[in-house]
Design brief:
The chain has two domains: about 130 residues, Jelly Rolls (Sandwich), CATH 2.60.120.10; about 130 residues, Nuclear Transport Factor 2, Chain: A. The protein is about 20% helix and about 40% strand. Strand 14 and strand 15 form a beta hairpin. The strands form four sheets. It has a seven-stranded antiparallel beta sheet. It is built from five helices and 17 strands. The N and C termini lie far apart (about 55 Å).
Length: about 300
């Protein structure tokens, strides 16, 4: 049988990019164009960019570095990769990559069979934007990709001079925002607790849909009116920077004291929070997901 409708396919450097996780991205070939055989994606990544540590269950990946210096980790083992380096990432094995040095990097990503290219399409925007964490986790689950968190530490990392002042400044700002949130929650200060969030923040508390705007304020108002959170602590485990955004995950704990006189109870769990520097220069929480609190 001859497959119908499959035709030779060409695209060029003039193809307009989409923005996958904020990166300029060109779909060189899709599963639809290759009868499901493979997808081919070209990424341009800024200095300091790092992917999440993740595992694919449906496809194998092959990476080919076109420009720049990169490091790849596969099952905990790191490999340095410059231009013309090929790296294979089998399915079911955790892996990730990052850009080294002061220059951007450009690479081709080949996924077999095709299909992951549609994950790229669903997670892309027409203009640069920080990743939507709630959407990322949902779409990753749909395509059977496990997001495991930031990359593991790389031993003997070569010294880098990429925007050290900017990176430190953003990290310091994140530390201040986190401390402000902890202090506000412990003080029961509703307005100060809400002040750490960006205007378009999306928060997913336990047992709740994604909350934004008035719905988010209503949820915090209900919690603060009916409970005190005593000894609230946030303990980050790891964080990774993506341009002007930092994605952090870790643990939190507190004592939940109902204001109706009911017995208190210890609460706590894990969280993933994305911080970003906004257009006005301030740093705010843009996405937040956590568990461990009664719904």
């Amino acid at each position: 049988m001859i497959t119908q409708g499959l035709q030779p396919y060409v695209n060029t450097a003039e193809e307009p990019p989409i923005y996958f996780l904020g990166l300029p991205t060109i779909l060189r070939a899709t599963g639809q164009a290759t009868n499901g055989a493979f997808g081919l994606v070209e990424n341009l990544m800024p200095p300091g960019f790092a992917s999440p540590y993740h595992t694919h269950h449906l496809e194998d990946e092959a990476f080919y570095v076109l420009e720049g210096e990169m490091a790849f980790v596969c099952d905990g083992n790191w490999t340095l990769a410059g231009p013309s380096t090929y790296v294979f990432g089998p399915r079911n094995i955790p892996h990730g990559f990052k850009v080294l040095g002061d220059a951007p990097a450009r690479m081709l990503l080949l996924c077999t069979p095709g299909g992951f290219d549609q994950f790229v399409v669903e997670m892309s925007e027409p203009t640069p934007a920080p990743p939507d964490m709630a959407k990322l986790m949902a779409v990753a689950a749909k395509y059977r990709v496990d997001i495991l968190g930031p990359l593991p530490e790389q031993p003997d990392v070569p010294a880098r001079s990429t925007n050290a002042r900017s990176s430190t400044s953003l990290k310091d700002a994140v530390d201040r925002v986190r401390a402000q949130h902890v202090a506000a929650v412990n003080a029961g200060d509703l307005e100060a607790a809400l002040d750490v969030f960006a205007p378009d923040v999306a928060v997913m508390p336990p047992g709740q849909p994604v909350l934004q705007g008035a719905a988010l304020r209503a949820w915090f108002t209900h919690v603060f009116a009916n409970f005190s959170l005593q000894g609230f602590e946030i303990r980050p485990d790891a964080a990774a920077q993506y341009g002007n955004a930092i994605i952090e995950h870790g643990n939190w704990n507190a004592t939940l004291q109902p204001k109706n006189g009911s017995p208190s109870q210890p609460v706590g769990g894990t969280y993933v929070t994305a911080y970003a520097r906004l257009a006005d220069g301030s740093v705010r929480v843009i996405r937040d997901i956590f568990n461990g609190m009664p719904g």
